[in-house]
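Q: Hi! First time doing this. I have a protein sequence and I read that you can turn it into a structure. Is that right? Here it is:
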Amino acid sequence: MLRTLLLLALGAPLSTFAQQVIASGGGHYTSPTNAMSVTIGEPIIATVSGPTNTLTQGFQQPWVDITIDVEDVFDGPMINVYPNPVRHILNIAMDDPSRADRYMLFDAAGKQVTDGRISSTITELDMEHYASGGYILRVLSADQRDVKSFKVSVTH
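A: Yes, that's right. Below is the predicted 3D structure, encoded as structure tokens:
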């Protein structure tokens, strides 16, 4: 009998509990030599369920400052967009402004809200009159090809 119980205990599948996450964003990125998975969220430390409600507790993060380079179409000039998130003036800094001609700013719905010319190493864009939220800034070459695109957050 003891031998049977021992074999049953050793042969029974073992179950483990892994950490769960409530994810609000993330993604999976691959290249020929590397792969990376990213999750933005909070780990779940306890879940309590009742007949009508479920309460999930986790670690709350007060704020997260994330700058994301959305798209890099081809090897172009070095471009930096700062500060991000922005309240007042957004700077578009370039090492070689002759390789980009203009910029276009789109709101979260994809509607173009402004555009302008890039004529120096630092171009300033006044963001004070735009509503808080996410925007896409596209930097274009003279032949209207994307040089680089950035996700920009406006906070007031």
